[in-house]
Amino acid sequence: MSDRKRVLFLSTGNACRSQMAEGFAETLAAHLIEGRSAGVEPAAEVDARAVKVMNEDWTDISERTPKAVTDDMLADVDLVITLSDEARERCPALPEGAEHRHWAIDDPHTASGDEQRIMNTYRGIQDEVKENILFLINEVRGGNEEFQI
To answer: What angle do CA 116, 45, 59 make, to 5 degrees?
Structure first.
């Protein structure tokens, strides 16, 4: 039995924000957090721009595939974190004892403008996800240290 906190990051398509969260949980705190991700309506593939910005931060999510949330996933979690309003609204019932949190993080797919502006939006979303993961790590560790991005 693992002492790690089992966290499911749930978004709409499991193509961007939840994949970023799982990737950061894995690279920054695999010893503390068993991170997984899923979507309420999975996309066909992980967003290429999300892969690119995560690679810029030394986290490879290129081999991941979007997955649908299942009852089996939910049965084995301590915490479900929804990253989109739709995921929060459509989140299936959680098992007794499981906690739910919502991180209201904008959908980068709504970004407009030239490619540089769109990529900057993705980088901002990535920074927000990472900051939330760092706070979660600190909480799981039981500390009150401050982390920097």
So the answer is: 60
Euclidean distance between CA atoms 61 and 95, whole angstroms = 28
Classify residue 148: in a domain, yes or no.
Answer: no
Question: How many domains is the chain partitioned into structurally?
Answer: 1
Beta-strand ranges (E) seen in the chain are 5-11, 33-39, 79-82, 99-102
Token pair listed for 43: 């996309």
Tens of pLDDT along the chain (149 residues)?
Answer: 468 999 999 999 999 999 999 999 999 999 999 999 999 999 999 999 999 999 999 999 999 999 999 999 999 999 999 999 999 999 888 989 999 999 999 999 899 999 999 999 999 999 999 999 999 999 998 865 554 44
Q: CB count, 10 Å around CB of 59?
A: 20
Longest dimension (CA), the chain: 49
Q: What is the pTM of this model?
A: 0.92
Look up the domain containing 113 and give its range. Answer: 5-141
Q: Rounded distance, CA 87 to CA 80, Å?
A: 11
Q: Domain for residue 146, yes or no?
A: no
- Domain CATH code at residue 55: 3.40.50.2300
